[in-house]
Write a structure and sequence with these properties.
14 strands, eight-stranded mixed sheet, four-stranded antiparallel sheet, Phytyl_CoA_dOase-like, Jelly Rolls
């Protein structure tokens, strides 16, 4: 059964058991190239005079209006180490961006087409979603040298519905390896529940509890070939390390929620 018809029973069983599932060859080379080239165009037209440093370690720099408003925009976020002590870029902007988010799935034709495809819907439907809808999208550059680690987290922390329904789709647009910062996951961690929430309060955001401590020996790497897709349960703990290679490790991700019979809290960012 092809992915156009959704997941096979074996794939569904693995996802339910482990909290993630890798689907090789989901996207064709031309589809990957189309997204990469489209992002190159968006970045070329980006004016870096207004920006936010995206801190993936302490995450305090996320708490500004630029980040807050990015939920409904195509916004660019620089790496922390992209700047010198005088706040000047140390390299071209193309090598300085951490990610772009968080509404390409709505606002850009190429990303909207990819994010709202029949294949995306079929996968969600095969997992029991009745009216799935993408709620967030990100293009992640994972720059060489300065591409920071992403600390262990759960996607439901940031956009949890009631009842929980977040399903993450993460595509490797080029090969993702341990050297260039592939994802690491804790299998079966989705069965241990949500550890903390990221809450909106007025024009600011905060975490309700401190970052949990995790046993790092429980993480396993998920290396992926270009075009592969990994599905992530909203409660699955995952992370990525720094990119130690000489090239970017581009990836595109969306988060899908169930909109039939669920409540999306106003406290969600």
């Amino acid at each position: 059964m092809g992915v156009e018809q959704g997941l096979s029973q074996a794939q569904k069983d693995f996802y339910e058991s482990e909290g993630y599932l890798v689907i090789p060859d989901y996207a064709s080379p031309s589809e990957c190239t189309t997204l990469i080239k489209r992002m190159d165009e968006l970045l070329r037209d980006f004016d870096p005079t207004t920006f936010s440093i995206f801190s993936t370690t302490n995450q305090k720099a996320n708490m500004d209006s630029y980040f807050y408003n990015s939920a409904n925009n195509i916004s660019f976020f620089f790496e922390e180490r992209a700047f010198d002590e005088n706040r000047n870029l140390k390299q071209p902007k193309e090598l300085s961006i951490n990610k772009v988010g968080h509404a390409m799935h709505d606002l850009d034709p190429e990303f909207r087409k990819f994010s709202r495809s029949a294949k995306v819907s079929a996968i969600a439907a095969s997992l029991g979603y009745r009216r799935p809808a993408p709620i967030q999208s990100m293009y992640i550059f994972k720059q060489p040298g300065i591409g920071g680690e992403v600390v262990p987290h759960q996607d439901n922390t940031f956009m949890c519905t009631d009842p929980p329904s977040v399903l993450g789709y993460w595509w490797a647009l080029e090969d993702a390896t341990k050297e260039n910062g592939c994802l690491w996951v804790v299998p079966k961690s989705h069965k241990q529940g949500l550890k903390r929430k990221f809450l909106k309060e007025g024009d600011s955001v905060r975490y309700d509890v401190p970052q949990p401590e995790y046993d790092m020996s429980t993480f396993i790497p998920v290396e992926m070939k270009a075009g592969s897709l990994i599905l992530l349960h909203g409660d699955l703990v995952h992370q990525s390390y720094e990119n130690k290679s000489s090239k970017q490790r581009p990836a595109y991700s969306i988060h899908v929620i169930e909109t039939d019979g669920t409540f999306y809290p106003e406290t969600n960012w």
